[in-house]
């Protein structure tokens, strides 16, 4: 299947550059562009893309609010946040709003395409070391750090808690399966149950939950 992508950025050169790069990749098609968050919401409804490449800092409506509204509308599109800054103060909030991950704008064409494929497949873009580091940093910068949530965590089995910790550490399903010496299909089942029990949308929110509740703490 071809992955349909919507590019959201207020800079025309950025939109055109990413469009050229992605359209050159097998199995990826750029189906539209938007110049701000408000237009992005309308384009998601009209075009039904699989992945939205979302800039954060834009006029009219920023990417954070747009991400929040797209996720709240239960759109099928996965949001992959793009940022110029490797410590953008809004990235943490975007992850909490439901973004499935983020990339720096200086990512290579290969990294950009791989990021789109990973997010489209329902995985969180957590594996790269820069992403893992940023999630840790933004968890420390949360305005209201919480201790372990007894209600949410109590819903998880011991094995589900173990899987959640490994998700937060940036491991893929295959890597978790190898670590726990079980089938990858078993890990997929655990991940699905974790998301349902905690009321979370995807692996990214699960990772943020693990850091916020201090199931995982910064090294």
From TrEMBL:
BP GO annotations: phosphorelay signal transduction system; regulation of DNA-templated transcription
Keywords: DNA-binding, Phosphoprotein, Transcription, Transcription regulation
InterPro entries: CheY-like_superfamily, NreC/VraR/RcsB-like_REC, Sig_transdc_resp-reg_C-effctor, Sig_transdc_resp-reg_receiver, Tscrpt_reg_LuxR_C, WalR-like
CDD domains: LuxR_C_like, REC_NarL-like
Keyword hit for DNA-binding: yes
GO MF, any single term: DNA binding
Name of protein: Response regulator protein VraR
